[in-house]
């Protein structure tokens, strides 16, 4: 038996105690990270009023954090190749939680925006390394499901990061709403630190930035990175600006009720876990394309001025988004045969740049043509993502290359 085969045999498999502990630890990490990352999103209308800023400018509180995270994620992933996955994740999660305690104390919008950018850098360690950690420690046959469960934790974290402050704001104001969310994230961070198993298959490597160029030279990887950018640009646009629509005519919903739209993230957590398992059985491409088309159908349902249709459409869109993200992220881990942390970091860099750049562009679309403009913008993003996805084979290589007879490692790995 070869060394890689021996190592694969010793990795965590579905149903093993080790994988259950990994799942729970990274689920807690996803909760903490994404509660911290998105806790201002449900508060944007109130922050617009309180600081007298436009919706597009208020959305910088999300965009600056995700943009800073995107910039930091590649160097942080490189450090994990040298100093270890677990060490980077633990330092990152604790630092971000402590910075979050300062947010409710900010006296002005510029101060709050600056601190959010600093927090974004600190948050980079978990998303930069978690996918690579799973690819190192989990058996390939169970990787899709494990990736889906981690993404489910991020989805639930995004839910709580929106619902908790959105519910509390009418009772105690935005400062206490942020404080309560931060304290819960701190508790999840403590659970993550207590449960995370040490790496067993990580091997320190010299930091070699040529690996980044190698991943970027792969046309299949570039398409996966483009899909990540487009997906997140659409997702952040929807959740940033749907609140403004529901607070205005003809709905005039209370802020606490509008904050509950993030409950649809529960469906996203289910969708990501199921999509990961389905991709393990059928391959990632059909699940990814189907998820993108389903997201477009859900977004289209939100265009009419009907609350039941908006609710149903948002649920469908969210389930499909998380399914597509889980499959694309797992596909990157399978595609990368070396420097997995850097491959995943490039994916996530594109993902969060989509949030920062694409989400801000969505604000411009909303200000110019309200929800119709924002919806058309997101549908265009999804159409581009489908166009990128249909040219990928199971390896992440271009379908055209496969037709010319160039094989790939997917079938050999299976």
From TrEMBL:
This is MFS family arabinose efflux permease. It comes from the Bacteria. It is a multi-pass membrane protein. It comes from Actinomadura viridis. Its main location: membrane. The chain crosses the membrane at residues 21-38, 58-76, 88-105, 117-135, 147-164, 176-196, 224-244, 256-275, 287-307, 313-334, 346-366, 372-394. SUPFAM superfamilies: MFS general substrate transporter. PROSITE patterns: MFS (PS50850). Keywords: Cell membrane, Membrane, Transmembrane, Transmembrane helix, Transport. Residues 18-399 form the Major facilitator superfamily (MFS) profile domain. Belongs to the major facilitator superfamily.
